[in-house]
Amino acid sequence: SRVRCSSLKPLSPDRRWKFICEPIEKDVRLLSKKIPITKYLNFQVGIGHNFHHNLTGWQWKISTCLGGDGISQFRNKTSVSLFPGFDLRIGYRAEYILPEIHGAVGTGEPILNMNYGKLHASIDRFEAIITHGS
């Protein structure tokens, strides 16, 4: 993960750019806003300079709007009735990062690269609920 010293974005909803400075990696970048290309896909382009390698180049990224930025998470509980008077309740959660295609020209990074995403799921709670009628 990268540590950002500053990230400047206009506060208005119609912002068109974002400036990022990463002093540990000696990077500065100017990125466009995410531009919708389909209902679920966004495109973003930017220009950056790496002072450590003295490289300037273009970067691009195609991402989905389903996961937001970073890790997305959901938690849920599901009840299953096995027979009258006996139910199972399962509490589970999942964290996911959706796949992303990106690339660059002139920065030393590959022209085309892909993050495959990640899924971590767990069952956090398991309950047996017994009820009986009188």
From TrEMBL:
Matches recorded under InterPro entries: DUF7781 (IPR056683)
Domain DUF7781: from-to ranges: 8-132
Protein's recorded name: Uncharacterized protein LOC120282152
Organism the protein comes from: Dioscorea cayennensis subsp. rotundata (White Guinea yam)
